[in-house]
């Protein structure tokens, strides 16, 4: 007779399988740097930092600007396959989020847009955005805001991967 496992036992068993798979992958050489993705942190255009912590301001009107946008510079001469924006809410709430790839010909690819996304405090949201084939953007714009989120803090970062 098979005894049912508790959720904790199932999770521990899953971790054991994952560890065994990782060890097998490394012993076969599949986990070596030759096969691994290489990602590089991008710098915020304003501060030069690779992570930016902000407090969501009120919505901008006419001459009042919001701080909902953060631009990250893509270094020239590097061919990235995709980018990953990470938003880590310091306070959980409902946020409006966009990720845009800006190109030198003044065109923009909207890679991600969600209104009223429910983010949990301390749980990162990772957004993958592919660049055009053979054409890297010069900036990645991440917009985090929303009237529900006013006053909330979050940290944002972007990496480019090849």
Find the CATH topology of the largest domain. Answer: Jelly Rolls
| Integer average pLDDT | 79
Oligomer: single chain
Considering DSSP H and I runs of 4 or more, what fraction of the residues is helical?
A: 10-25%
Low-confidence stretches are 1-35
Molecular structure report:
By secondary structure, this protein is mainly β. The protein folds into two domains: 1-36; 39-161, Jelly Rolls (Sandwich), CATH 2.60.120.260. Helix content is 13%, strand content 41%. The chain is built from one helix and ten strands; from the N terminus they run H-E-E-E-E-E-E-E-E-E-E. It has one helix at residues 7-27, and strands at 39-41, 43-44, 51-55, 69-73, 82-89, 93-102, 108-119, 125-130, 139-145, 153-161. Strands 1, 3, 5, 8 and 10 form a five-stranded antiparallel sheet that branches. It is globular and about 40 Å long. The termini are far apart. The model is unreliable at 1-35 (pLDDT under 50).
